Amino acid sequence: MSDVDADVVIVGSGPGGATFADVITAAGWTAIVLEKGRNHLLDPEPPHEPLGRFSNDEIKLTRRHLLGPDPLLEPRTFRRDEADGARLLTGEVNNLPSTVGGGGVHADGKLPRLLELDLRLRSELGPVDGAAVEDWPVTYDDLEPYYAEVEAAIGVAGDAAANPFAPWRSGPYPMPPGPDMFGTRLSAPAAQRRGLHPYRAPTGVNSVPYDGRPACIDCGFCGFYGCPVHAKGDPVAMLQRALRTGRMQLRERAHVTDVLLDAAGHTATGVRYLDIEGEGHEVRSRYVVLAGGAFETPRLLLLNDLANSSGLVGHHLMFHVQTLTVGAFGLDLLGDRGRAVTHLHDDHLLPVTGAAAAEHGLPWFRGGLVEHGAAAGPILEATTYPWGPQHNEAMARSELRRRLWVFTMQGEDLPQPTNRVDLDPSVRDVWGRPAGRVTYRPHRHEEVASAHHGPVLEAVLREAGAAGLLDHLSPLGELTDLDRANPLGIAPAAPRHGDVPHGRRPPHERGRARGPLPRRREPAVRRLVGVRDVERLRAHAHAGRAGGAGCPPAHRDAAAADRAHGRRAGPPARPGLARPCRGDGPVGAP
Amino acid sequence: MPVWLTEEEHEVLAAAADRLLPADPERGAPGGRALGVADYVDRLLGAFSFDPPRIWAGGPFSGRHGGQASFDDWLPLDRLDQIAWRRRLDELQVRYRAGLQALGDDFATCVDDEQDRRLGADPSFRALLYAHACEAAYGDPVYGGNRDGAGWAFIGFAGDVAPRGWTPAEVRGDEQAVELGLGQLDDLADERTTDAAGRGAPDGPSETEPGVGDGSAPR
């Protein structure tokens, strides 16, 4: 032990890394967590209280890059395919927060579990041409205890009986659901009258005081904002617990450049990182865990030319493909109160097979989880309206912020080998290291599913009383200004719905044309597995090919990290973990 | 006194802001000049005149809705933040200096059509001005715009509401629901259970108990 600085070095402090740090330190191991972004979350000194930097401030959180990454320091690039040349765009490309707590900081924390079907798409539904449809290597029954443990660790509020499609649970949610948003009084009954099954979204937001943190105050600044009262448990709860064991060190602005290997080049022995001054440091550890997300983890492996004998690192990148169906109502929907999304329905996750699929040349297709939501900040709203006298008229009426209700279908995005993260040939970050580049086009499956389910969602909004409707899919076709600004959007785990154009499209128009809606997708983060070729190196397998079902990645990410502890951490030092741990052996079935 | 702009530039900017966000007493719109758009831009361009630079206001509360006022405790920028923001502001300073000069020192005294013509001569600068005007008008007053919260008052926006937040009844819109004759969502839950059972849920009936936890800590 004396020749290492910690048992484990964890690269990234988001939901995956934070959960791993929590369980590993609870089991008596030591961990050093390296985060390339800044720490705005927790006091590094005991007792590690929140720093209180987050607030209801649209400027610093949405206009001035408080949570990072600043595109001037860490640009990313994007293209649709090779025909676009080396890149189409440089700057913000799916910029999830780069900060202590990662994407958990700005997410509004909708945390439904994957369905049993999501883990068995290949065996249940079969292959699709042009996509690599695979089963997960674990079943839902394997994962359930870890889901339960993570829901307790984060603090998830929900109604266990509410969703008829939900998989089995070993117990209730730790907290009852928080208050419903006003607009769901229109959209949920309408959905039900159309034969759908809306339910109160399970959210990682305290509905009652929990784990020493207060109940949510429903301030309305949720998705895209850090919580000013830390009622969101992910990731503050896990990082704080880990820090308070005294066995975790947190180093901000630690930009990992290299994974260190032993002389034979087979075993990871630590990492090298640059501190904020650009000084290099080495950290030695028994294990290295890469938890940098679907973008930064493959970028680091590619920069190290590591673990890539398969040539698949960075490939099969998936995003949330969103179908946004927007209804305009004649009344104020109070969308600026509450948690941005309080209801979901899962009906469109049921696969469509047979003739309906065959007529589109597909063996099957499925849509995704649908969020009922609204709300946009007034700055975002104002920038979508014209300047001059029309500005005041538009702001006073507030079509966008007050009167829109939005269904967002987070569609299943089939993994394609050509959709990937690789290294940009010439764009560099502030350290002079190659920027990551996304190459992405949706599969026809996603377009067919959107076209199939969009009209159903339109009918529901009409039933709810919407006077005007528009419908929008977000694959990348012809580029709009918004595509140019941020082609894959940001953070579907924290959608702010209703940031929809005013007066740019006539009501009822439906089409695949490029509307000016911001697109928000998030790389679907996969299971935590050993990395090919290198011993003692572990990563969330972002290039994995299993289905994602449009669920926010943080939850399964955390559950997977929790499970991996059971695989790797050795016997726990104290009771309280849901699963027995058996050293490097497999985890027993529940 | 402006911190970065000259007095002349500040006046041109205020007049331009008033053209992009016109005052409209009938609707209660204060207009870009009265909202302090020029002050907002000036504080942004001159952010490094302060220590810490005034890029990110503090938190968690403004004090307007309870809690201790802390927005004026500006967050420190670290070395990398400074690299990014100095570069960003350097570029903005160049654009503003040139853009305001092109609008002309006499811009404030021009008739509306002439002001529109000059603003239209550089659509990219006009777009920049408009984006900053929107931030100024509807962002937090601590950044120099939205004077006395007049921008929020105009649009009926409560602004930052933490730590008071909204009560469950306000989130649910109970008052509005009564006016509209909407039912309680709790009614829905019962219907849903019946309906779901009738349609048949997917494999694996729920084995959960209907109750919820007691809210105690997980460990």
**Helix fraction of chain B by DSSP (H/I, runs of at least 4):** 40-55%
Number of strands of chain B: 0
Helices and strands of chain B, in order, run as HHHHHHHHHH
Biggest sheet overview of chain B:
none
Radius of gyration of chain B: 25 Å
Q: What structural category characterises the helix and strand content of chain A?
A: alpha+beta
Sheet with the most strands, sense and barrel status of chain A: 8 strands, mixed
Principal-axes shape call of chain B: globular
Helical residue percent band of chain A: 10-25%
Terminal CA distance of chain B reads 56 Å
Q: Biggest interface pair, residues each?
A: A-B, 100 and 92 residues
Low-confidence stretches of chain A: 490-529, 540-554, 564-590
What does it look like?
The complex is a heterodimer of chains A (590) and B (219). In chain A, 23% of the residues lie in helices and 18% in strands. Chain A has helices at 15-26, 58-63, 103-106, 121-125, 140-154, 184-193, 236-244, 293-303, 355-358, 378-384, 389-397, 399-402, 444-464, 481-485, 553-568; strands at 6-11, 31-34, 76-79, 89-91, 199-200, 248-251, 255-261, 268-274, 280-290, 321-328, 341-345, 352-353, 364-365, 368-373, 404-411, 420-428, 434-439, 468-473, 528-530, 537-540. The longest helix of chain A has 21 residues, at 444-464. In chain A, the strands form four sheets. In chain A, strands 1, 2, 6, 7, 8, 9, 19 and 20 form an eight-stranded mixed beta sheet that branches. In chain A, strands 5-11-14-15-10-18 form a six-stranded antiparallel beta sheet. Chain A is globular. By secondary structure, chain A is α+β, with helices and mostly antiparallel strands. Chain A contains 15 helices and 20 strands. In chain B, 50% of the residues lie in helices and 0% in strands. The radius of gyration of chain B is 25 Å and the shape is globular. Chain B starts with 6 loop residues before the first helix and ends in a 20-residue tail after the last helix. By secondary structure, chain B is mainly α. In chain B, 40% of the residues are buried. The longest helix of chain B has 25 residues, at 79-103. At the A-B interface, helix 2, helix 5, helix 6, helix 10 and helix 11 of A face helix 4, helix 6, helix 7, helix 8 and helix 9 of B.
